[in-house]
Amino acid sequence: MTTPFLSIDHITKIFHPSQEIEVIGLQDIILCFDEGEFVVISGPSGSGKTTLLNIIGGLDHATSGTVTLVDQVITGLPESQLSALRRDRIGFVFQAYNLVPVLTGRENIEYIMKLQGKSQQECDVRTEAISDKLGIRDYLEKLPNQMSGGQQQRVAVARAVAAKPQLILADEPTANLDSASAENLMGMMQQLNEDEGVTILFSSHDPLVINKARHSVILRDGRVFQDQ
Amino acid sequence: MFKLICKISWASLKRRKTRSLMVILMISLSLWGLLFMEGIYDGMTEQMITNAIRSDCGDLTIYAKDYRLERKITQLIPDHRALKRRLDRDPRVRSTNTRILQDGLVATAHYSRNCLIIGISPKSEKKHGQLDNYLIAGHFDFGRRNNGAIIGAKLARKLKIGVGKKIILSAQDTQNEVSAISLKVRGLLRTNNMLFDEMAVLIDQNKAAQMLSTGKGISQISILLHDEQALEPLQKELQARQPRLAIFRWDEIYPALLQGRVMMKGFNMVTNLIVFCVAGLGIFGVMLVSIMERLREFGILLAVGTSFRQICWMVIGESLVLGSIGFMSGAVLGGTTLFYFHRQGLDLSLFSEGLETFGVDSITYALIRPEYFLYSLLAVILATLISVILPLRMLKKANPVEAIHTL
Questions:
Q1: Among B183, B196, B310, B386, which one has the highest count of C-beta atoms within 10 angstroms of its own C-beta?
Q2: CB distance from B4 to chain A under 8 Å?
Q3: pLDDT band for position B407 (cuts 50, 70, 90)
């Protein structure tokens, strides 16, 4: 039996556990994903999609259970190691793009590579390559507020991919995009998944995204409703 | 990486231009005020000390043993010429000067006052303490027949006399006889050494020796040094070598001036503390608001793998930039002002009456000392670092990752 790439083992998340009214965000989630998968976690609002992605990305802590990425148990790691994990192994694409507003597109893409200690030459080569692939060369020198939503999201994808992570977590990346831009973005991410072999986990309730998935998980009320 | 972090910090400061400028202005102005006050107050104190040293005691003063207790004219320094020659050869000594001192009475036709008769050599005084620079009227000499006297300005005012007027000087001589001479006022001196200006009647040293029957003896040797650091070692050395003499430092003769200097140091420390608080509070306010406004930005940076330590450096960097710009502009402003008043002097003649009471010159020349800048730099840096502790703690507690909302 081979070790799964990403294993989510009995993850439970309770909000405000010490207070009278406890809110259960996730309940006993068990999931496994293989390397190179293109996964969509869908479900209605409040079903726990974002909470699950936050826990996988080390941005939030589970109340119980473990998340293991390849051979490393993520849950319970100290903040400094979680930072390193996010920097080196996980890329993020946010619904609201979340580019650093004072940095240009190029600087946003290079930021994580610089955090990793890559030289300027390495950063330049990687940025050029990824920009060509994602078609963002024209707005590399622009600030986020000079770009459209679709352009910002492409730069955000480039930022997530540039540092060569093992896993990309994308939380409703098409939610703020028009359908043409969303279609374009999904095509692009599919291409990246195939070319770079990077595992991508989406959370979304956009049918466009759900239809593209090769592995689909549906959450309902914090539980796994369907995993196929 | 460093460049990117600097860029983010700089952009944040630029985004909050008005607020950043306000803090810089606050630091600059308080530093300017601090440097100005430090320089002027130190200048005042040092001028008072210099006046006392030049007009009276020198850096070191030699008297016969117990002279300061009894102040008798018979307590003279024996063999002073050999001692003076030896001192003049010492590389630490800038100049030496001898005086005959005796308490006496100065009288005009209408008034009389206690006075201190000081037998001097004008030539030697000019070279030694440049006493002639304090002359406000008349000449710094005793006339062709040495029948003149130079008296303190306050004493002249009290006697209601001026240059050219006659005075009668009387005092007890070494034989316990009362001796008196008639002199003409040749000049008036204002040193702002209160004691000197109220009491001094300067007469020719030979004339004083003759009047007081001191022979070849003198009462005081005043010594000026090249470096204040040599003061105590030389005092100890001389005292060990001359047990029959009493050697005093200027601060032993004028302890109030030393107290003034100590007080000024304390005052400067308090003003440094004020600048520290002003700078600290200013930066604290700006950094707190800046951090709270940028929670989302910090959240993004943390989410993509920036460590909290790197965020801390970013915030510290921003506040250091604010502090350094504030310090530099304040230091340039304050330094230029001090340099101007160091050269031109600050004319306080409007308050000269009051200032004279305290022995302060009406024109004060500011001092410029490197430690003013060094201590205020330390105060600003310290304020900068301390002021970001609380905002950073709040940032850590606020969990900015939550501020991203989605993932």
A1: B196
A2: yes
A3: very low
